[in-house]
Protein backbone atom coordinates (compact mmCIF):
# COMPACT_ATOMS: atom_id res chain seq x y z
CA UNK A 1 0.00 0.00 0.00
CA UNK A 2 1.27 3.49 -0.89
CA UNK A 3 0.00 6.71 0.66
CA UNK A 4 0.62 10.25 -0.58
CA UNK A 5 -0.88 13.51 0.63
CA UNK A 6 -1.17 16.91 -1.02
CA UNK A 7 -2.88 20.15 -0.11
CA UNK A 8 -5.51 21.33 -2.58
CA UNK A 9 -7.39 24.55 -1.75
CA UNK A 10 -6.98 24.11 2.03
CA UNK A 11 -8.12 20.51 1.74
CA UNK A 12 -5.77 17.61 2.50
CA UNK A 13 -6.08 15.02 -0.24
CA UNK A 14 -4.74 11.62 0.73
CA UNK A 15 -4.33 9.17 -2.13
CA UNK A 16 -4.06 5.48 -1.29
CA UNK A 17 -2.88 2.81 -3.70
CA UNK A 18 -2.94 -0.95 -3.37
CA UNK A 19 -4.34 -3.23 -0.73
CA UNK A 20 -5.79 -2.08 2.60
CA UNK A 21 -6.01 -5.06 4.97
CA UNK A 22 -5.06 -5.89 8.57
CA UNK A 23 -1.36 -5.65 7.74
CA UNK A 24 -1.56 -2.22 6.09
CA UNK A 25 -4.57 -0.51 7.74
CA UNK A 26 -2.51 0.65 10.77
CA UNK A 27 -0.30 2.66 8.37
CA UNK A 28 -3.40 4.27 6.86
CA UNK A 29 -4.81 5.04 10.30
CA UNK A 30 -1.50 6.56 11.45
CA UNK A 31 -1.24 8.72 8.32
CA UNK A 32 -4.78 10.00 8.85
CA UNK A 33 -4.13 10.55 12.56
CA UNK A 34 -1.07 12.66 11.73
CA UNK A 35 -3.22 14.93 9.57
CA UNK A 36 -5.77 15.38 12.34
CA UNK A 37 -3.05 16.04 14.93
CA UNK A 38 -1.65 18.82 12.74
CA UNK A 39 -5.13 20.34 12.56
CA UNK A 40 -5.75 19.28 8.97
CA UNK A 41 -9.40 18.51 9.44
CA UNK A 42 -10.75 18.91 5.92
CA UNK A 43 -9.67 15.62 4.43
CA UNK A 44 -10.43 13.82 1.18
CA UNK A 45 -9.44 10.17 0.92
CA UNK A 46 -9.03 9.23 -2.74
CA UNK A 47 -9.76 5.50 -3.10
CA UNK A 48 -9.45 5.28 -6.90
CA UNK A 49 -6.42 2.98 -6.79
CA UNK A 50 -7.45 0.90 -3.79
CA UNK A 51 -7.89 -2.56 -5.27
CA UNK A 52 -9.00 -4.24 -2.02
CA UNK A 53 -10.22 -3.16 1.40
CA UNK A 54 -11.18 -5.35 4.36
CA UNK A 55 -12.98 -4.22 7.52
CA UNK A 56 -9.58 -3.22 8.97
CA UNK A 57 -9.49 -0.37 6.44
CA UNK A 58 -13.05 0.62 7.29
CA UNK A 59 -12.08 0.70 10.95
CA UNK A 60 -9.27 3.18 10.21
CA UNK A 61 -11.66 5.42 8.28
CA UNK A 62 -14.45 5.31 10.87
CA UNK A 63 -12.11 6.10 13.74
CA UNK A 64 -10.68 9.08 11.79
CA UNK A 65 -14.16 10.33 10.91
CA UNK A 66 -15.13 10.25 14.59
CA UNK A 67 -11.98 12.22 15.48
CA UNK A 68 -12.42 14.95 12.85
CA UNK A 69 -16.13 15.34 13.46
CA UNK A 70 -15.37 16.15 17.09
CA UNK A 71 -13.37 19.19 15.91
CA UNK A 72 -15.81 20.26 13.21
CA UNK A 73 -13.89 18.70 10.35
CA UNK A 74 -14.84 15.97 7.91
CA UNK A 75 -13.31 13.01 6.12
CA UNK A 76 -14.85 12.64 2.66
CA UNK A 77 -14.25 9.80 0.24
CA UNK A 78 -13.96 9.76 -3.53
CA UNK A 79 -13.72 7.34 -6.42
CA UNK A 80 -14.20 4.00 -4.65
CA UNK A 81 -13.90 1.01 -7.00
CA UNK A 82 -17.01 -1.18 -7.30
CA UNK A 83 -15.49 -3.69 -4.88
CA UNK A 84 -14.64 -1.05 -2.25
CA UNK A 85 -18.08 0.52 -2.74
CA UNK A 86 -19.64 -2.90 -2.08
CA UNK A 87 -17.74 -3.24 1.20
CA UNK A 88 -18.75 0.29 2.26
CA UNK A 89 -22.39 -0.44 1.43
CA UNK A 90 -22.42 -3.77 3.23
CA UNK A 91 -20.94 -2.13 6.34
CA UNK A 92 -23.68 0.52 6.30
CA UNK A 93 -21.13 3.29 5.85
CA UNK A 94 -22.53 4.92 2.71
CA UNK A 95 -24.92 6.91 4.90
CA UNK A 96 -22.14 8.04 7.24
CA UNK A 97 -19.44 9.10 4.77
CA UNK A 98 -19.92 11.71 2.08
CA UNK A 99 -18.77 9.90 -1.06
CA UNK A 100 -18.01 11.65 -4.36
CA UNK A 101 -17.41 10.25 -7.85
CA UNK A 102 -14.11 12.08 -8.32
CA UNK A 103 -11.47 14.04 -6.43
CA UNK A 104 -12.35 17.50 -7.72
CA UNK A 105 -15.98 17.12 -6.63
CA UNK A 106 -14.85 15.96 -3.18
CA UNK A 107 -12.40 18.88 -2.78
CA UNK A 108 -15.00 21.34 -4.09
CA UNK A 109 -17.55 20.12 -1.54
CA UNK A 110 -15.64 21.75 1.34
CA UNK B 1 -12.36 -32.94 -6.49
CA UNK B 2 -9.03 -31.24 -5.86
CA UNK B 3 -7.56 -30.27 -2.50
CA UNK B 4 -4.76 -27.90 -1.62
CA UNK B 5 -3.25 -27.04 1.74
CA UNK B 6 -1.24 -24.15 3.17
CA UNK B 7 0.19 -23.66 6.66
CA UNK B 8 1.54 -20.25 7.66
CA UNK B 9 2.50 -18.47 10.90
CA UNK B 10 -0.43 -16.47 12.31
CA UNK B 11 0.74 -13.02 11.30
CA UNK B 12 -1.13 -10.14 9.66
CA UNK B 13 1.47 -9.92 6.89
CA UNK B 14 0.71 -13.53 5.90
CA UNK B 15 -2.97 -12.83 5.22
CA UNK B 16 -2.21 -11.64 1.69
CA UNK B 17 -0.46 -14.97 1.01
CA UNK B 18 -3.50 -16.85 2.32
CA UNK B 19 -5.81 -14.73 0.13
CA UNK B 20 -3.67 -15.44 -2.95
CA UNK B 21 -3.82 -19.16 -2.14
CA UNK B 22 -7.62 -19.03 -1.81
CA UNK B 23 -8.01 -16.99 -5.02
CA UNK B 24 -6.10 -19.66 -6.94
CA UNK B 25 -8.46 -22.33 -5.58
CA UNK B 26 -11.51 -20.16 -6.36
CA UNK B 27 -10.34 -19.79 -9.93
CA UNK B 28 -9.94 -23.58 -10.24
CA UNK B 29 -13.54 -23.83 -8.98
CA UNK B 30 -14.45 -21.36 -11.76
CA UNK B 31 -16.10 -18.91 -9.38
CA UNK B 32 -16.82 -15.52 -10.97
CA UNK B 33 -14.89 -12.36 -10.11
CA UNK B 34 -17.40 -11.19 -7.52
CA UNK B 35 -17.43 -14.56 -5.75
CA UNK B 36 -13.62 -14.68 -5.74
CA UNK B 37 -13.57 -11.25 -4.07
CA UNK B 38 -16.10 -12.45 -1.48
CA UNK B 39 -13.89 -15.46 -0.66
CA UNK B 40 -10.88 -13.15 -0.20
CA UNK B 41 -12.74 -10.84 2.18
CA UNK B 42 -14.21 -13.74 4.19
CA UNK B 43 -10.83 -15.45 4.60
CA UNK B 44 -9.10 -12.15 5.41
CA UNK B 45 -11.66 -11.37 8.14
CA UNK B 46 -11.48 -14.90 9.54
CA UNK B 47 -7.67 -14.85 9.75
CA UNK B 48 -7.69 -11.39 11.31
CA UNK B 49 -10.08 -12.68 14.00
CA UNK B 50 -7.92 -15.77 14.63
CA UNK B 51 -4.84 -13.61 15.17
CA UNK B 52 -6.52 -10.75 17.05
CA UNK B 53 -9.08 -12.58 19.22
CA UNK B 54 -7.92 -16.21 19.12
CA UNK B 55 -4.16 -16.07 19.52
CA UNK B 56 -4.43 -12.50 20.92
CA UNK B 57 -1.41 -11.36 18.93
CA UNK B 58 0.96 -12.30 16.15
CA UNK B 59 3.39 -15.24 16.11
CA UNK B 60 1.46 -17.20 18.75
CA UNK B 61 0.68 -20.15 16.47
CA UNK B 62 -0.21 -21.22 12.95
CA UNK B 63 -3.14 -21.06 10.57
CA UNK B 64 -3.81 -24.02 8.32
CA UNK B 65 -5.88 -23.47 5.19
CA UNK B 66 -7.45 -26.33 3.25
CA UNK B 67 -9.29 -25.61 0.00
CA UNK B 68 -11.47 -28.18 -1.72
CA UNK B 69 -12.95 -27.52 -5.13
CA UNK B 70 -15.84 -29.68 -6.16
CA UNK B 71 -18.48 -29.30 -8.88
CA UNK B 72 -18.70 -25.52 -8.98
CA UNK B 73 -18.12 -24.83 -5.31
CA UNK B 74 -15.19 -23.92 -3.11
CA UNK B 75 -14.95 -25.19 0.45
CA UNK B 76 -12.40 -23.39 2.62
CA UNK B 77 -11.43 -24.72 6.03
CA UNK B 78 -9.29 -22.68 8.43
CA UNK B 79 -7.77 -24.51 11.39
CA UNK B 80 -5.95 -23.03 14.36
CA UNK B 81 -5.02 -23.94 17.92
CA UNK B 82 -6.04 -20.64 19.50
CA UNK B 83 -8.59 -20.38 22.28
CA UNK B 84 -12.09 -21.61 21.30
CA UNK B 85 -14.28 -19.07 19.57
CA UNK B 86 -18.08 -19.22 19.47
CA UNK B 87 -19.37 -16.83 16.82
CA UNK B 88 -22.99 -17.58 17.75
CA UNK B 89 -22.55 -15.43 20.86
CA UNK B 90 -21.65 -12.35 18.80
CA UNK B 91 -24.36 -9.72 18.39
CA UNK B 92 -25.22 -8.53 14.88
CA UNK B 93 -23.55 -5.19 14.20
CA UNK B 94 -25.84 -2.18 14.24
CA UNK B 95 -25.54 -0.51 10.84
CA UNK B 96 -26.52 2.84 9.31
CA UNK B 97 -26.30 4.68 12.64
CA UNK B 98 -25.05 8.22 13.15
CA UNK B 99 -21.27 8.47 13.33
CA UNK B 100 -21.32 9.01 17.11
CA UNK B 101 -23.13 5.69 17.53
CA UNK B 102 -21.20 3.73 14.90
CA UNK B 103 -18.89 1.12 16.39
CA UNK B 104 -15.27 0.97 15.28
CA UNK B 105 -14.99 -2.67 14.24
CA UNK B 106 -17.15 -5.72 14.85
CA UNK B 107 -17.76 -6.40 11.16
CA UNK B 108 -15.57 -9.46 10.58
CA UNK B 109 -18.01 -12.32 11.24
CA UNK B 110 -20.85 -10.29 9.71
CA UNK B 111 -18.85 -9.94 6.46
CA UNK B 112 -18.06 -13.66 6.46
CA UNK B 113 -21.72 -14.60 6.81
CA UNK B 114 -22.85 -12.06 4.19
CA UNK B 115 -20.27 -13.05 1.61
CA UNK B 116 -20.25 -16.85 1.90
CA UNK B 117 -23.05 -19.38 1.36
CA UNK B 118 -22.16 -21.43 4.44
CA UNK B 119 -20.16 -20.56 7.56
CA UNK B 120 -19.73 -22.96 10.48
CA UNK B 121 -17.45 -22.97 13.51
CA UNK B 122 -16.43 -26.00 15.55
CA UNK B 123 -13.82 -26.92 18.14
CA UNK B 124 -12.38 -30.38 18.73
CA UNK B 125 -9.29 -31.73 20.48
CA UNK B 126 -7.72 -28.31 20.83
CA UNK B 127 -8.28 -27.27 17.23
CA UNK B 128 -10.73 -24.66 15.98
CA UNK B 129 -12.22 -25.34 12.57
CA UNK B 130 -14.00 -22.73 10.48
CA UNK B 131 -15.60 -24.05 7.30
CA UNK B 132 -16.87 -21.66 4.64
CA UNK B 133 -18.45 -22.61 1.33
CA UNK B 134 -18.95 -20.48 -1.76
CA UNK B 135 -21.01 -21.80 -4.65
CA UNK B 136 -21.50 -20.59 -8.20
CA UNK B 137 -24.05 -17.78 -8.27
Key terms:
heterodimer, A: 110 residues, alpha/beta, B: 137 residues, Heat Shock Protein 90, 3 helices, 30% strand
Quaternary structure annotation: heterodimer
Order of helices and strands of chain A: EEHEHEHEH
Q: CATH topology of chain A, which one? A: Transcription Regulator spoIIAA
Q: Which term fits the overall shape of chain A?
A: globular
| CATH architecture label of chain A | 2-Layer Sandwich
- The ordered H/E elements of chain B are EHHEEHEE
Q: What is the tally of beta strands of chain A?
A: 5
Give the strand content of chain A: 25-35%
- Give the CATH superfamily of chain A: STAS domain
Kindly state the percentage of residues in helix of chain B: 25-40%
Radius of gyration of chain A: 12 Å
Report on this structure.
The complex is a heterodimer of chains A (110) and B (137). Chain A is an alpha/beta fold. Chain A has a single domain (2-108), classed as STAS domain (Transcription Regulator spoIIAA, 2-Layer Sandwich). Helices cover 40% and strands 33% of the residues of chain A. Chain A has 4 helices and 5 strands. Chain A has helices at 25-37, 55-70, 82-90, 103-108, and strands spanning 2-8, 11-20, 42-53, 74-78, 99-100. In chain A, helix 1 (25-37) packs parallel to helix 2 (55-70). Chain A is globular. The mean pLDDT of chain A is 96. Chain B has a single domain, classed as 2-Layer Sandwich (Heat Shock Protein 90). Chain B is 32% helix and 30% strand. Chain B has 3 helices and 5 strands; from the N terminus they run E-H-H-E-E-H-E-E. In chain B, strand 4 (118-124) and strand 5 (127-135) form a beta hairpin. In chain B, helix 1 (15-28) packs antiparallel against helix 2 and helix 2 packs antiparallel against helix 3. The longest helix of chain B is centred in the first third of the chain and has 22 residues, at 33-54. Chain B is globular and about 45 Å long. The two termini of chain B are 19 Å apart. The chains are: A alpha/beta (110), B alpha+beta (137). Chain A binds chain B through residues 19, 21-23, 52, 54-56, 58-59, 62-63, 65-66, 69, 83, 86-87, 90-93, 95-96, and chain B through 12-13, 15-16, 19, 37, 40-41, 44-45, 47-48, 51-52, 93, 95-100, 102, 104-105, 107-108, 111, 114.
